[in-house]
Design brief:
Layout (H helix, E strand, L loop, with lengths): L1 H6 L3 H4 L11 H5 L16 H13 L2 H4 L19 E3 L5 E5 L6 E3 L14 E2 L4 E3 L16 E2 L6 E2 L15 E2 L4 E2 L5 H11 L2
Parallel strand pairs: 2-4, 3-5, 4-6, 6-8, 7-9
Antiparallel strand pairs: 1-2
Length: 196
């Protein structure tokens, strides 16, 4: 679940929220009195989203190798128009298109915190390696496509990708080193999507 995945977020990710009100604690930063995630980042984008984007930037060589990093890590992601993001009117990040940006490293598990992504994810032509995070299955608002083609990701295709049942677009993981065996759960997802 989102709650258990968020609870296991690293201390690094939690430390990336800035502009905390005077006297706020790390616990205050992530849980309000109702138990919901509170946003204390400077702007409308929720703190968890900002932390996830910062983790993505840091784990894929943003500062070192990205060819375009306009406004990344400067203020609020939506208010400051971080390169490659599409935002809704309430500050939710609903699109991520940072393909052909020379990303190198690994996709962080915190990508699963970007739960408002709906209009698509494009992370193509990269040097991303490691394994595909199972937390991508948490992106259940995704209604468009998820594209991570031309990469160096290895290992099995996570069965959790079958949770992306709202997706009307394609799931493109081609041109990489992923295992050739496709999980049966994804075959069923493909049949479901094609029958719509």
């Amino acid at each position: 679940t989102f709650e258990s995945m968020f609870a296991s977020a690293t201390a690094f990710s939690r430390s990336l929220c800035w502009d905390l009100p005077s006297g706020a604690t790390t616990t205050d930063m992530f849980t309000g009195s109702s138990g919901s995630i509170s946003a204390y980042a400077s702007g409308p984008t929720p703190c968890a989203t900002t932390s996830a984007l910062a983790a993505l930037y840091n784990s894929t060589g943003g500062r070192r190798v990205w060819t375009t990093k306009l406004n990344w890590m400067a203020g609020d992601p939506c208010t400051n128009s971080w390169y490659g993001l599409t935002c809704g009117s309430s500050g939710e990040v609903n699109g991520l298109s940072i393909g052909t940006n020379q990303l190198a490293g690994m996709l962080p598990t915190q990508i699963g915190l970007l739960t408002e992504l709906g209009s698509g994810v494009a992370i193509t032509n990269t040097l991303i390696s490691g394994t595909l995070p199972t937390e991508i299955g948490l992106l259940q608002s995704l209604t468009a496509s998820f594209s991570a083609r031309h990469h160096k990701i290895r290992g099995a295709v996570p069965t959790e990708l079958a949770l992306l049942t709202n997706m009307a677009g394609s799931l493109d993981l081609s041109h990489g080193a992923l295992a050739a065996t496709v999980p049966s759960e994804l075959i069923l997802l493909n049949e479901t999507l094609n029958s719509r």
